[in-house]
Design brief:
By secondary structure, the chain is an alpha/beta fold. 44% of the residues lie in helices and 20% in strands. The protein has a 5-stranded mixed β-sheet, with helices on both faces. The protein has a 5-stranded mixed β-sheet with strand order 8-7-6-9-10, sandwiched between helices. The longest helix is centred in the last third of the chain and has 17 residues, at 208-224.
Length: 281
């Protein structure tokens, strides 16, 4: 049996493919090896999927995850996988390669992730040949849920939101400066917290202020990421991630204004990865 995983900072999507190409799907919490140990990740796996399958029968694991560009972080995840799938060949890769394989399959193109965080690469049909550093949610992650949430909250606390949006947001979350600072500076996963306000923006998607906020954030992503690739006007740019998926119309408009051609936009790379590794979705 082949087990495929795509893990972001918030969630992990799993697909199990058996010898008859039957696909079973699971979802668990996201893994973040920068701050989580192998033991902690292993416990998340046990709670999320290991109780539903026989780990000893898994022969291969293809894992694509946030933070898995460094060998140290790959080792953290590998150890967690072996705790649950002791007989499997474990292949750990960065989530960006997962996005590229899912979106481009065996064709050249630009693959981009817009979810809790953001990233992009140029993929030649086999490997990633160029990658503009994203720099994370403090210095970068343009176009991501964390970036959009950070910009929105700055407007909120500086009383720059339209009155109706400010009132609705306050009545929904009752967010004070003290609560905000505690969640961003006093607790882990500040990026997830900043991105947690995206559903509110989605509900107000018809408001011109929200549209402009999203458009500007996506334009920053194109300016700082996609436009840095020399062939960005020649090849197709594909997207995966919840932010790209749910705000696709605004994303496409920002791309068009920068002469960037958009191809596939998916909520998650997992279906494309299942096709890549198992030959069918």
């Amino acid at each position: 049996m082949i087990l495929i995983a795509d893990s972001g900072a918030t969630k992990t999507d799993w697909r199990l493919c058996d010898a008859e190409k039957k696909i079973t799907q699971f979802r668990s919490k996201g893994f973040y090896p920068f701050i989580q140990t192998s033991e902690q990740i292993s416990e998340f796996i046990k709670a999320g999927i290991a109780s539903q399958i026989n780990g000893k029968e898994v022969s291969q694991v293809f894992y694509y995850g946030t933070g898995c560009s460094s060998e140290d972080n790959k080792l953290v995840v590998r150890r967690a996988m072996l705790m649950n799938f002791p007989n499997a060949e474990i292949v750990i890769n960065h989530d960006l390669l997962g996005a590229a394989r899912s979106l481009c399959q065996h064709d050249a193109g630009i693959a981009a992730i817009l979810g809790t965080g953001s990233n992009s690469c140029y993929y030649n049909g086999e490997i990633i040949t160029e990658n503009v550093p994203s720099l994370g949610y403090i210095l970068g992650d343009e176009g991501s849920g964390a970036h959009i949430g950070k910009r929105f909250l700055k407007h909120y606390f500086e009383k720059e939101l339209p009155a109706e949006i400010h009132e609705l947001f306050f009545n929904t979350y009752h967010l004070t400066n003290e609560i905000f600072l505690e969640n961003v500076y006093g607790k882990p996963f500040a990026n997830r917290y900043l991105a947690s306000f995206i559903p509110f923006l989605l509900r107000q998607i018809q408001h011109p202020f929200i549209v402009a906020l999203l458009y500007d954030s996506f334009l920053e992503f194109f300016n700082y990421q996609v436009c840095k690739y020399p062939r960005h006007t020649e090849v197709i740019t594909h997207f995966t991630g919840s932010v790209a998926f749910y705000f696709a119309d605004i994303l496409r408009q920002a791309a068009s204004d920068r002469a960037i051609r958009i191809g596939t936009i998916t909520e998650s790379p997992i279906a494309g990865l299942t096709l890549f590794h198992c030959g069918e979705k």
